Amino acid sequence: METRTITLTTEGGATFTATLADNSSARALAEMLAGGDIAIDMEDYGDMEKVGPIGRSLPRNDTPTTTGPGDLILYQGKYFVIYYGTNSWTFTPLGRIEGASGSELLKALGRGDVKVTLSLKK
User: Fold this and answer.
1) Is residue 83 packed enough to be buried (19+ CB in 10 Å), middle (13-18) or exposed (0-12)?
2) How far is Cα 49 from Cα 43, in angstroms, rounded to an integer?
3) What share of the chain is helix, strand, coil (3-state, %, to 5)?
4) Residue 91 forms beta bridges with which residues?
5) Within 13 A of 104's CA, how many CA atoms are on the CB side?
6) Helix (H/G/I), strand (E/B), else coil: 111
7) pLDDT score, position 3
8) pTM score, two decimals?
């Protein structure tokens, strides 16, 4: 994979850098992003995550996972999830935002709906 780093930008202008996982799901996401940025309309779920459709299905590499703040997850092969809390389930890891606490992520993402744009880090 050429790049393993992506940028996430909220509609409010907050920017985070994430390192992608080493699996076919993350590589497929990077290939999508090579074609241009992806804007995802995300909503709160369970007071622990933001979730939104990525527009197509990606390969799944589901494994029992306990998430933490900053984890990026593929759910059901077609939903992009940003965790600001914790959860345990069977998910596909996509990557991790480094250096941001759960409270920092929640402040940047806000309560309710938010648009997040994903791009390859240049």
Assistant:
1) buried
2) 8
3) 15, 50, 35
4) 63
5) 10
6) coil
7) 66
8) 0.95
The pLDDT tens digits of the residues spanning 61-106 come to 999 999 999 999 999 999 999 999 999 999 999 999 999 999 999 9
103's enclosing H/E stretch is helix 102-109
| Nearest Cα to Cα of residue 54 among 73, 68, 71 | 73
Structure tokens at 3: 């790049």
Residue whose pair of structure tokens reads 């390969």 in the numeric block: 59
79-83 and 5-10 beta bridge pairing: unpaired
CA distances from 33 to 43, 61, 67, 69 (A): 21, 19, 24, 23
Write down the pLDDT at residue 2.
54
Are 6 and 95 in contact by the 8 Å Cβ rule? The answer is yes
Is pLDDT at 1 greater than 90 in this prediction?
Answer: no
Q: Are 68 and 88 in contact (CB under 8 A)?
A: no
